[in-house]
Design brief:
The chain has one domain. The chain has 1 helix and 7 strands, in the order H-E-E-E-E-E-E-E. The protein is mainly beta.
Length: 162
Amino acid sequence: MWFSLNHLLLTSLATLAMTATATPTPSAIDNLRPETIAPENLRPKAIAIDHITPADLEATSLTKRDTLAVYYCYAKSGNSCSSCYYESFDTNSHPSCWAFSTPVQCMSAEYRVYLAFCGTNNCSGNCNYMNNCGTMLDRGYCYTPGTNSFQVGVSMQVPPNN
């Protein structure tokens, strides 16, 4: 009897220990999804927003590149954006207008692009342009309150210094 009670207790503890270690934990990959990346790690590869005029730029077709990363944030505090995400768009197959399900507060892009941000969900009406950003924020973001959609036009490249 004493042996079977000890055996039962030991078996129960071993089963409990195996159950506790069998609980799945998020993999490192899960922590790299765009929605979990800290805003400070979402900085574009090149600062996309300058106070430059279209006359200073050389336009090229978007078809010369396959993808474009657009960064957008749902919250702003002071000069910083938070609740940031990014999307990589295939510029050869996607439509030129993308709508947000919830208005965004800040935007940036991976490259210098002709990016219009609009208050409507169909890229019409009152639209503003990244190259004419009224309020620049930290890390190259533009303050874009109430943006419901955006439209990508042509790529803009700063001409080489002569």
